[in-house]
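Training component of the fellowship. As part of building independent skills, the fellow (R.M.) carried out the full modelling exercise for a liganded target. The chosen ligand was magnesium ion. The inputs are recorded below so that the supervisory panel can assess the work.
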Amino acid sequence: MSVKIVAAQQKMTAYLDGEIDHHNAAFIREEIDNAVMASKPEVLKIDFDNVTFMDSSGIGLVMGRYRTLSMYGGKLIVSNLSPQFYRIMKLSGLEKIAIINKREK
Amino acid sequence: MKILNEFRMTAESKSVNESFVRGTVAAFAAQLDPTLEEIADIKTAVSEAVTNCIVHAYAHCVGKIYIYVAICEGGLVKIKIRDKGCGIADIKQARTPLFTTSGGERAGLGFAVMESFCDKVYVRSKVGCGTTVTLIKKTGGRAENG
Ligand SMILES: Nc1ncnc2c1ncn2[C@@H]1O[C@H](COP(=O)(O)OP(=O)(O)OP(=O)(O)O)[C@@H](O)[C@H]1O
Ligand SMILES: [Mg+2]
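Fellow's submitted model of the complex:
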């Protein structure tokens, strides 16, 4: 599992690579939170294009980051979800509070 | 339902085993020649049940997780995940979407994911004794003569 964070102006993107489960969710959380708290971007995009597995720990991770951003008025975008991950995310009702996008093609 | 093949394993409740267990169960079920989506569904549901043993059942200790998988005629996969942990007092409440006793980073959607990715989910539990989650998943089933 790896996290690559790219920041440009007020927009930050976290590219996740690998499997998101309970075992490595804590690592991902720390990587993202450290970067977010350091620069408080207006928008945080979490990119799932290279995620190969996700269970409900992924929902917890995204909901947790949503709360972190809400504390200072930041916005969350979740992008490139596979159809399977999209189905999991929708169970949480996340699409009502954040922007969630499926993978293209 | 005639069992074509079955498999058992025991794993310690360490989070590093989560990916090993779901991967192994999915590899075993692959004998039925399921679709990639069905394999992903099985992996996800197993990951939920195993993670619950680690996070909830054995919250303050390391215990054993007992896994049983049977593949049956007609492409049916039956998976049992059992722990001897704290047990669940109110199963109906536990299965309610968004209910969690952990808060923080847990969404309370593990059972909802299992239910949406499997055909049937049965939960048996006794406080102080443990919990058994049974997952039933129908697959395309092209291995009738297995
Ligand atoms: N094996 C188990 N032993 C004891 N309690 C359990 C077990 N499995 C589930 N529970 C209880 O049921 C509740 C709901 O479980 P569920 O998997 O739906 O959500 P969660 O684990 O709290 O959060 P998430 O799975 O979204 O990270 C848990 O919070 C816990 O109290
Ligand atoms: Mg759970």
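The panel noted the following from the submitted structure. Residues A 56-57, 60; B 48, 52-53, 55-57, 83, 85-88, 94, 99-102, 106-111, 131 surround adenosine-5'-triphosphate (ligand 1) (CB under 6 Å). Chain B has a mean pLDDT of 95.
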